[in-house]
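From the shared-data thread, chain only:
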Amino acid sequence: MGGDDIGDAPPTGAGLDPIPRCPDGADPSLATILRLMRHSRQPMFVAWGPDLAFFYNDAYAPILGGRHPGAQGRPFRQVWPEIWDDIWPLIRQALAGQATWSENLHLLMERHGYKEDTWWTFSYSPAHDEAGRVAGMFCSCIETTGQVLAERRLRENEGRFRALLDAAPALMWVTDRTGYCTHLSRSWYAFTGQTPAEGLGTGWLDAVHPDDRSASKVRFLQAVRDRTPLRLDYRLRRADGVWRWAIDAAEPRLGPGGEYLGHVGSVLDITERREAEEHQALLAREVDHRAKNVLAVVQAVLRLTRAPDLPSFARAVEGRVAALARAQTLLSKDRWAGADLRTVVAGELAPFLVEHGGAESRATLRGSPVVVPAAAAQPLTMLVHELATNAMKHGALSVESGRLLVTWRVEDGALHLGWIETGGPAIAAPPARSGFGTRVLDGTARAQLGGSITLDWRPEGLACHITVPLSLPQEEDAAIDWAG
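Structure, as tokens:
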């Protein structure tokens, strides 16, 4: 074999021969190449001479499959006939003295008795003899089939994942591990009017309200840095320029090995829900305020009501509290948005007309539809109740021949309510003193409603005119002062 015998090392694996002995009379350069290949764990081979005799190391043997060990020393073309046409241009280039590099090159191989798709990253380099001539080619290679297929599966999964995101009704987004937004769903672009060039990266923040943008960015970057779940509330600009409240919730996205890949999130328009919650809170405050006001009214009724005996006192108090209860019921049914004036008046008159055997024809209600503010409904109810109570005791509703006309109109932002009684007992003169009912009328119209009231004690019956501004303040009601 000669002095270049390098084949006396033991096998490196079961069933694998060591690299071959250098052929007798071989060029020393070939012996040097084989010696370098021997202990490398990188798959390598050299193709030498006119027939490109194929010599490979132990790390390359598994690549050959059933062709090992018979492939040692055979012509390269006979070792890999099925891929020869694919690699010959690269071999020819190396034999011409030019090194080549191929990355993830696809080759259809039959190394295990069946055709299979494989991918390879390798270099072909010219191999020179002792005289400096190109005598063959040297290859260092690695099979990348698993990596290529894994990346392909990953891309396919990413494609399916993004298709699912695009099909979702929510606005969806995905980032990489640096926080760079790599995908926004079609629903995001449809909602915001942004284009991919505008929205990807950190451009999506441009659609967030300027007052919410800085805090949202800080919390977003913190979640990316800490790789933690994220929840943001902010105003998002719709394509038509309208700002909508949104919840942006995201979770870290992990790879098969648990490695952090970025975040995936969804954005939901919660404007209607937020408005409903704010309205509910407003209603709760309004109910609390009204409840306190009702208690104050009840306390005043109890303190100031006068009657000759206990049953009369009880009836007077019950009537006034019942009027308050009817106002509360009417307002709660309409969610404290206001009350229909006709309903308020008719509701207060009904108990008096029914209780005293009258018919609805005894009272005529005339006026266009008017919704009075919630703050005015309760005081107006008390006004009508006191007028009806007085009419039942002393006026038109105290006799069967009595008649009542209630009219209203809205003029210059104020409600004008008229109360005209006829057919009742003749009135010789106005009352000598003001009773509790009169004080309630005056205090309610002026102090609570900020309006005015006039009482005209005509011989044929009382004529009352009440003016109430409809643009009432929404702060605390005026203090109840019926004592004056």
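The chain has three domains: 28-142, 149-269, 300-469.
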